[in-house]
Input
Amino acid sequence: MSLLPILRFPDPRLKKPSAPVRDIDENIIRLTRDMAETMYEAPGIGLAANQVDVQKQVIVMDTSETRDRLLVLINPVIVESDGTQVGEEGCLSVPGIYDKIERAERVVVRHLDLQGQEKTIAADGLLAVCLQHEIEHLHGKIFVEHLSRLKQIRIKAKLAKQAKITA
Ligand code: NI
Output
């Protein structure tokens, strides 16, 4: 297993939509292991493959407090959503930035597991937020794009400054 470098907003590669996975082969299995290790190490509660520069519809998540409930979703699709909730979100591709985002309160997500079996998750609360946030990544969208243009400009400036300090 190995840690993968995480792309940072506003890297244009984060805007590319991801392709569905056709074969869950060794490469995909290795990718999900590396992504899980990268997410736990960061630490974060979710990571989409395009955040590590792989344009495939793969997500890893763990919203448990015990950090031992890894979810791996291949080709996830939101098939139902309702209600609204507003919560503070952050993103491993936008380090140090948190803001309130409105999301659906409940979602139903259909996906494949690592064995290629079709599965359905019905989620609310934080798990529902995380699913929406990560699936949005696969469509080339980052949570800060829900914020005002002015806020986005400020965030870009802040991240550019951080990058200079750490470079
Ligand atoms: Ni994110």
The longest helix spans residues 149-166.
